[in-house]
Design goal:
Elements lengths: L3 H4 L14 H19 L1 H6 L1 H25 L13 H15 L2 H20 L10 H22 L7 H25 L24 H18 L5 H4 L1
Helix pairs in contact: 2-7, 4-5, 4-7, 5-6, 5-7, 6-7, 6-8, 6-9
């Protein structure tokens, strides 16, 4: 119990995060292992579909709520970074909506935005706290679950990705980016990294200086969306 204040604390130097450390690799392994299980056990998961959807919804909602409680109790909640305007925060909200509504349009957004954003975040996380801090677990679990929700609807519910969904997702991404850009001006924040690059090492470090890396990000997003659509070429239209 004496370590509990440190587990939820804000003394980040006690638990420094190291890229591709053992704990980071373990979380990546769990993500890959769980993804394989979703594919292999999709028939079994279908029998208990409502149960697993409930588990996914409650887990995402609980960890996101606890994150904001952790910030607020520690006096760290700030409108400049705590609004749900980061790509993965938006994807998380979309996942909650999808799990409640089973909307095919929202599924397209979760598939393209969620998978592209969360996978990049898992490999190069903007994370200042390492294992075994609460934020470490909250970050990786929520990002892993975002991807698993997308995979669940593909392999268990049989949802199909379409070319139209790809373009709708790209348009939605740009619409949200406009909102994030305005929010950055109003709050002096850095939502969707439209104000500057993240402090931690990331893929953005290779994309040139501000603001040119934003244009490169647009191109990369479109390429990633197309790569995610590749397995579905022809199949979505036939369905």
């Amino acid at each position: 119990m004496k370590d509990l204040p440190h587990f939820f604390g804000h003394d980040y130097e006690l638990f420094p995060f190291q890229l591709f450390s053992f704990s980071h690799l373990i979380m990546l392994f769990l993500f890959i292992f769980g993804s394989i299980l979703i594919v292999m056990l999709h028939t079994t998961l279908k029998k208990y579909e409502k149960v697993f959807k409930t588990i996914l919804f409650v887990s995402l909602f609980l960890f996101e709520t606890l994150y904001h409680v952790w910030l607020y109790v520690g006096g760290q909640w700030n409108i400049a970074f705590a609004l749900p305007l980061h790509l993965c925060s938006i994807s998380l909200l979309l996942c909650l909506i999808l799990l409640l509504s089973n909307s095919k349009l929202v599924f397209q957004f979760v598939y393209f935005l969620g998978l592209a954003g969360a996978m990049q975040a898992l490999v190069t996380p903007e994370l200042f706290v390492g294992f075994p801090h609460f934020r470490f677990f909250q970050f990786f679990i929520t990002h892993i679950l975002i991807i698993w929700v997308g995979l669940f609807f593909v392999f268990v519910n049989g949802y199909v990705v379409t070319k139209r969904g790809m373009w709708q997702s790209f348009a939605f991404l740009n619409a949200v980016a406009v909102i994030a850009f305005i929010a950055n001006i109003a709050t002096e924040g850095n939502y969707m990294f439209l104000a500057h690059k993240p402090e931690n090492p990331s893929l953005l470090d290779f994309l040139g200086p501000y603001p040119f890396y934003i244009l490169v990000l647009e191109c990369i997003a479109l390429v990633l969306f197309f790569l995610l659509y590749l397995p579905w070429i022809g199949r979505g239209e036939r369905k």
